Amino acid sequence: MHAETVIDLDVLATAIKAWGRELGFADVRIADADLAASEPGFEAWLAQGFHGEMDYMAAHGSKRTRPAELVPGTRRVIAARMDYLPRDAGPDWRDAELARLADPGAAVVSVYARGRDYHKVLRSRLQQLAQRVETEIGPFGYRVFTDSAPVLEVALADKAGLGWRGKHTLLLNRDAGSMYFLGEIYTDLALPVDPPVSAHCGGCTACIAACPTQAILGPQRMDARRCISYLTIELKGRIPLELRPLIGNRVLGCDDCQLVCPWNKFAQRASLPDFDVRNGLDNATLTGLFAWTEQEFDERLQGSAIRRIGHERWLRNIAVGLGNAAGAGLAGDAGIVAALDARAAHPSLLVREHVAWALARHAGA
C-alpha cells in the first residue's frame, strides 16, 4: 500500500485536478465520505415511494449514504464532472431545442443520450486518472463509479464544491449550468477536501413550472414516477394513461427543466468528440425512428446509452409521441397513421397496446 507519510497530499490533490482536466474533465474536486446530512432526506424519499420501479435505489441499505460501507477503507471521494453539450451546439441551442419540442412530428431525444454512452467514456477516463495516481505514488485503494452502484452522486458533487443542488435536484454550476455528467473515485487517500459552494437559485422556480408532468413537487422534491425520464427509460411496462398526453414528443428522457434554467446560458460544450450527435438524433422524426427494425436499433445504437431500454420500449415511447401528434395539429396525418398501422400487430403486447392508444387518439381527433 501507499505510504502517506512520504506523500505530500496537498501536492497530490493539485496534481489530480490537473490530470483530470487533461483527461477531459471540466472540473475535479475532493469531498470527505460523510453523507450523514443526506441520509434522512434520501430515506424519506424512498419511504414515499418516489423511486417507483427503481428498486436498486432501495436495494443496498445504507451503502448509498455511507461510502465506507460500500467500499471499506474509503476516506475521500474524488468527484468529477464532464460537459456533454455537443461541440457544434450553437449559441441559440436552447431555443432550437424548444422549437423541436413544439414540432409534433419531431422525435426529441434528451441531449445527453445523442452521442456515445457516457458510462463508458467517464469510467474509462476515471480509471485512467486513478492509474495515473498509482503510477505516481504506488498502489492505493480506490474504486471508480459513473452512475453505477449505490452512489449519491449529486450529494457528493455538492459536498465537493462542484456546484449546488438545484430545485430540480440536478447539480448546478455558476460557470456551466447543468449539462454535464458526474463520476467519482472512492479512495483511501486522506486528501485535503474542497469547500462546498453556496446555492444560487434564489427565488427562481422556472424548473418547477416547466416540468410537463409536475414531477417536481417543490424545491429538491422529485416524484420520479411522474418524471418523463423515468417513464421513458426506467419504467418497463405500460406508461400510465393519464401521463401519456403530457409526454408530448419526448421519446427518451426530458430536458425541459434544464432548458428553462437561467444558469444553462453558461452551459459549456464538450471537450471530447464522444458526445457529438450520432444517427441524426438531434433532427429525427417520430415516423423515421419508428420504422427502425430491432436489428437497425441494435446496430445504429451500438455504444449508445439508449440501447439499454431495448427496441420494445423504444417503440412504446415513440408510439406515445405519434399519438400525441393527434392533439398538436397532425390529427389523422396519413404518414403517422400508416406508421402506426404497420406496428398494430407487433408481437409485443406492450407495443400493441400503446399503438392502439395512439391510433385511437387519431381516430378520435
UniProtKB/TrEMBL annotation:
It comes from the Bacteria. It catalyses: epoxyqueuosine(34) in tRNA + AH2 = queuosine(34) in tRNA + A + H2O. Residues 189-221 form the 4Fe-4S ferredoxin-type domain. Transmembrane segments: none annotated. TRNA binds at residue 236. Cob(II)alamin binds at residues 64, 147, 171, 182, 229, 254-255. Its main location: cytoplasm. Binds 2 [4Fe-4S] clusters per monomer. [4Fe-4S] cluster 1 binds at residues 201, 204, 207, 261. [4Fe-4S] cluster 2 binds at residues 211, 227, 254, 257. Its EC number is 1.17.99.6. Pathway: tRNA modification; tRNA-queuosine biosynthesis. Keywords: 4Fe-4S, Cobalamin, Cobalt, Cytoplasm, Iron, Iron-sulfur, Metal-binding, Oxidoreductase, Queuosine biosynthesis, tRNA processing. It holds the Pfam family QueG_DUF1730. The active site is at 147 (proton donor). The keyword Metal-binding applies. InterPro entries: 4Fe4S_Fe-S-bd, 4Fe4S_Fe_S_CS, QueG, QueG_DUF1730. It is found in: Cytoplasm. Its cofactor is cob(II)alamin; [4Fe-4S] cluster. Belongs to the QueG family. Catalyzes the conversion of epoxyqueuosine (oQ) to queuosine (Q), which is a hypermodified base found in the wobble positions of tRNA(Asp), tRNA(Asn), tRNA(His) and tRNA(Tyr). Monomer. This is Epoxyqueuosine reductase. The gene is queG.
